[in-house]
Amino acid sequence: MQKSFNLPISRRDFMKIAGIAATGVIAGSIAGGNATIEAAPLHSGKIKYGDKEIPILFDADVCVAGGGPAGAAAAINAAKNGAKTVLIERGIALGGLAVLGCVYPFMDTHAPNSDTPYVTEVKERLRKHGIEPFDGVTEQTWHNPETLSLIYDEMCEETGVEVMYQTCLVDTIVSGSKIEYVIIQTIAGLYAVKAKTFIDGTGDAYLARAAGVPYEKGYEKTGYNQPLSFRFEMGGIDTKRLYQYVAVDLKEDWCKSKLPYFEIAEAMGRKQRYKLEDIMAKGIESGELTKEEAAYMQAYTIIGKDGVMSMNCPEIPVQYSATDPISYSRGARFGRKMMRHIAGYLIRHMPGFEKAFISREAVMLGARESWRIKGNYYMVEDDYHNQSRFKDAVCRTAWFIDAHGEKISEKLPKGGFYEVPYRSLITDKIKNLVVVGRCISASFILQASMRIQATCMSIGEAAGIAAAWCVDKKIFPADLKWEDIPATKRSYVSNG
Ligand SMILES: Cc1cc2nc3c(=O)[nH]c(=O)nc-3n(C[C@H](O)[C@H](O)[C@H](O)COP(=O)(O)OP(=O)(O)OC[C@H]3O[C@@H](n4cnc5c(N)ncnc54)[C@H](O)[C@@H]3O)c2cc1C
User: Fold this and answer.
1) Please, which pLDDT band fits residue 472 given cuts at 50, 70 and 90?
2) Closest ligand 1 atom to 94 CA
3) Where are the CATH 3.50.50.60 domain residues in the chain?
4) Pocket-testing residue among 64, 87, 92, 103, ligand 1, by greatest number of atoms within 8 A of Cβ
5) Which of 20, 25, 63, 64 is nearest to 44 (CA)?
6) Does 456 contact ligand 1 (Cβ within 6 A)?
7) CB 143 within 8 A of CB 303
8) Is 67 near ligand 1, meaning CB less than 6 Å away?
């Protein structure tokens, strides 16, 4: 059974609610038949925050911070399973890096039968919206960001998730081992949200860190995070000419699929040699590109956007940190310059790019890794190589260890995979918190494998189911054993 917040959205709803405006919670005006409605706090209370009194906006069962692949999945599945759910997102679209960060496609997990029901549903919805996600050759899911954000909106609306856009999680109010409220910055100012369970889908473990959960960041051997990327899209590309040049003339066989599903790639200094290395190396010789700009270039066609490619570059030098606010901001500025140089170089020298232009910049820097919690189970590289199985597994994956600049591991044998345990999403430090996505409890190296979008979605899905279960059973997520939820209600059941 679905519960949701009853916010006014239609004129009819407005009139209904206006009738109960004696509670003083709704102010509205009607112009040309359309209702313009301001919904004041749904909860009449206030809390003390420092020397301020701030209103409580929602009293929810589940509050999710961050609407990326993991957070959106968590919110939708919590609501679908009967929890009154609010989702806090600092952008104005769900999808996180997959939408705001221009990161596509969903990589193949390489694990057999890894798609959990929610992941299957998202793929089916892409198809219903005219985006065929499968290229018939690889297992990756080619999506389209504008369609994906629409799908997330639809799913939230259908399940009753109250999405708060342009709203940033700022702080937590903790009592003992329980988060009582989170403080959010909305377009109208600061509010508090009360909830029984909180889910951290910020990718940066922001909520968990604010609540005092132990964490780590970067690689213990170097102190660096994985490099940030500033992704963008280029339009006006003659993809047929590009395909002819790369796949036919150069005989580059890196991309197995054919147009409209086509990818070009070049990464210098790796074991794998790419045929585009020469063209990029010439840019260094001519002074048009720096070594850093030429070092990594990759582009994918986007289904539903003919002539547009998603650029998986530039990769910003690792000295620009994903966890230092000043360095991060300077990295964005540096990355934007790199982007212009790469785009300009491709326009001048890459067949097919002659009339191309930058059509979109990501509105979120591509942080592959930033902060990770230290939870009740800490996943390590051995879990990957040993193909660990867990009674409380929430999903399986086998994406290779893709720690840019540090380590690219051998792939697991075909059919091999490891599982992600529920315990890596929870911490006894804060009992009513579940952490999802790329910031779960895992080492730098293991995270480099589990961070891909489909895996993050499956993790979020399980968290949403667990959160709703806990609300219903009046227990804390940290006290739940995932395997105690009946198998029919779980999104993933380990077969050991
Ligand atoms: C350059 C790059 C290339 C990649 N390539 C691929 C690929 O090809 N295929 C693939 O499957 N994966 C790829 N990945 C990995 C994958 O995209 C991410 O690991 C995945 O998106 C993580 O999902 P998430 O939900 O944990 O976090 P994110 O996608 O980071 O989402 C976090 C969300 O939380 C929001 N948020 C953060 N802080 C707050 C706050 N305080 N208040 C409110 N909202 C907040 C953000 O706006 C965002 O919407 C790539 C990653 C990068 C960086």
Assistant:
1) very high
2) 49
3) 47-220+368-496
4) 103
5) 25
6) yes
7) yes
8) yes
